[in-house]
Amino acid sequence: MQRFFRKTVLAAGLVFASQLAVADDLVTILELAMRNDPALRQAQAQLQSGQQQVVQARASLLPQASASFTEQRQASGPEGDVTLTDLDQETTRYGINVSQSLLNLASWYSYQGAKEADQARMFNFQAQEQDLIIRVASAYFNVLRAIDDLNTRRQEEEASQRQFERTQQREEVGLVAITEVYEAQAAYDLARNNTILAEDTLASSYEALEAITGQPHPNIDVLREDFPVTPAEGDIEQWVSEAMNNNPQLQAALAGVDAQTLIAKARRSDHLPTVSLQGGYQNTESNSTRGADGSLRDAGAIEGASVSLTVSVPLFSGFATTARREQAEYDLVAQQESANLARRQVTQDIRNAFRRVNTDAMVIAQRQQAIVSAEAALNAIEAGYEVGTRNIVDVVLARQNLFVALRNYSDARYNYVIDTLQLKRTAGVLTPQDVIDLNEWLEAEAASAQ
Fold this sequence. Notes:
Elements: H1 7-18, H2 26-36, H3 38-59, E1 64-74, E2 89-103, H4 105-172, H5 178-213, E3 222-223, H6 236-246, H7 248-269, E4 274-286, E5 289-290, E6 296-297, E7 300-312, H8 320-387, H9 392-427, H10 432-439, E8 442-443
Antiparallel strand pairs: 1-2, 2-4, 3-8, 4-7, 5-6
């Protein structure tokens, strides 16, 4: 696959897709995040700042020019008689000097190293772009996760309240003991407490999403029930190979090795001679000059031009040149080990991500079955409670198991979505099309913290 897209391509794709959106869906929110997320804007500014290092490194290879202008007025005479209104001499000088490096391997390797370092910064910025997609998707689906959690908490609270009221009525006519009333009330109090906590969690989830885009999103589209859940395509080694070729963080580390290799060559070249060419022109104009007998004479204008070829051979600099060379060699070893670490980390991450996606797919199917089983168990236990073969504790536990199964199923679906995106992000192949495709499985239903 091709390397990760640049920001302009990402923005163009998201802007086009967002024109089709009519609500706060995932594409719309991601497009807002690309324009407003402080972390991405900071990374972009740092990238642009780092790009100026290439210009600075190239400057030593380009011609250097300077111009000068001097105007001098001089008066001389016996002490106490000199005034600025009676000048003996006025001199005007101007000139221009140009130099061009002809042979400077240290500067050349430094320039090439700066270009590789800029490439590493570009890969890091691409990683920031992909990270933004993950952050937005995580925040978005965490809101949906919190909504589902709050809905089940409220349903559980309502069911516990009804059970509590029914138990009170049964106790009043002598069908159950007062202890069962206490058990039902404890279950209701716990459910009410969990609802309050879920409301706070949802509000915090909305805040996390707003922190990325800079705008509130009180209503967002929800994930359709028929969203397809399938294992990851291909085998694990194919994904590892993809990550080795495309993961931007690994590519940045490898580019860093190339950059530091060139820097080490530059420091070794500090021991070599340099050759440069200089040229200059000067013009001096004087209205008078003083002769040996003290008389004033008109001097007129004098001009001159010069061209020189300079060969500079470094001999000794107090071991500073040697120290810089050895430092660059050690930095190269450190960068190589950093790349090795990145390679191993990416291999581990991509394998774990691949397994998580496949595990999520299996877990979702099992948790669907768990809901069916928990619901059947609750119905059976409630029937047994009505005829006196089960007690209130059994009913409370069975109801809690059902709502836990519902929440687990919701969590598994959102985990699968995020883990699928994370798998592509680790492989370095996450694109706007992945977001647009996912957005097709969202439907416009009002969902708020109220």
